User: Fold this.
Amino acid sequence: MRSTAERLSDAITRATGSFSSISLHVGALVSWVLINIGGIPGVEPFDPFPFGVLTLIVSTEGVLLAIVILISQNRMVRQSERRAHLDLQVNLLAEQEATLVLHQLQRIARRLGLEPDERDAEARALIEQTDVDRMVRHLERSLPKDV
Assistant:
């Protein structure tokens, strides 16, 4: 369940990440500059060059937008981690089921008196229970470390 802050940050991120937002910003900046360099007759400049007020507004907007985007990204990372954990659980369950099926097939083959062939050694290895802790340790050793 997303919090109000997360829903708001997602909405702001979607709105600011659109072409209409870019168009609005470009239009506002061009208008601001034109007004404040005296480029529009009858409109009194209110923020003369070097546009200190504009700089303050744009800087503040940039900081706030960066924070909002980070909130959205943090939520997406948490969601991705939950999905990866669920994926791992499903994969481990599928592995256990496959091991059980192989074990049952081997029992059926023995009961029917079928002769073993060259693949039986491979099947015996697959029937062995997977040691998840050993596999995790191996992955931790072989995968690159976080920078």
Remarks:
- Helices lie at 4-16, 19-36, 52-112, 120-127, 132-142.
- The chain has one domain: 4-141.
- Residues 4-141 form one domain.
- Residues 52 and 61 are 14 Å apart (CA to CA).
